[in-house]
Amino acid sequence: MKSEFTENLKEVSLAILVATVVVILQQVFLVSLPWEKFARFLIETGKVLLGLLFFFQSVKIDLLSMGQAVGLGIVSVMGERSSSSDCFGLSP
Predict the structure, then answer these.
(1) What is the count of structural domains for the chain?
(2) Disulfide engineering: 86 pairs with which of 16, 24, 29, 81, CB 3.0-4.6 Å?
């Protein structure tokens, strides 16, 4: 569970890091917003990171149990048939 959480944290951090770096570079070289607004952006970025982290963690937990149920159903059906194409009704 902990390794899944840290893996999820890495994925979400990398996704948000790109946009955050672009905004920081714009702040330094182009825009020069007041520091209060820029600090607010960084705080909100942290909130987005936490929200996405919890969202994707819950999706993985929920889909894992659903995927296991579907997989077990496919395996039980495939035990009666010869191939996966027969299982899904794709063979003539």
Answers:
(1) 1
(2) 81
Q: Which residues span the domain enclosing 27?
A: 2-87
Inside any domain, residue 92? no
Give the span between the Cα atoms of 7 and 47, in whole angstroms. Answer: 18
pTM score, two decimals? Answer: 0.60
For 16, residues 6+ apart whose C-beta sits below 8 A from its C-beta are 45, 48, 49, 52
Contact 11, 56 (CB under 8 A): yes
CA atoms within 13 A on the CB side of 51: 7
Each residue's pLDDT tens digit, 29-59: 998 889 999 999 999 999 999 988 888 888 7
